[in-house]
Inverse folding.
């Protein structure tokens, strides 16, 4: 099954953890602007960054984005 990434949920996860963007950026040695880019869907988090972020704020990597199944085309189904 294929999936599509929807909206970034990092802002919600930060609120739940009681952490701020500046705290996360400092903890991961990245610029706060990059974290804001993830939150605003201007950038997609690379897997390494998503793993580090999830570890820092205490959530699962899959909790950082809305994930929806991709509709399969008839040609995709035939190839499986």
């Amino acid at each position: 099954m294929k999936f599509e990434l929807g909206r970034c949920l990092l802002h919600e996860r930060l609120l739940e953890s009681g952490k701020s963007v500046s705290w996360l950026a400092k903890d991961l040695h990245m610029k706060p602007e990059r974290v804001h880019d993830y939150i605003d869907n201007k950038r997609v988090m690379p897997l390494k960054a998503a793993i580090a972020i999830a570890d820092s704020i205490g959530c699962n990597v899959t909790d950082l984005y809305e994930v929806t199944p991709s509709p399969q085309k008839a040609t995709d189904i035939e190839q499986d």
Q: What stands out?
A: The mean pLDDT is 92.
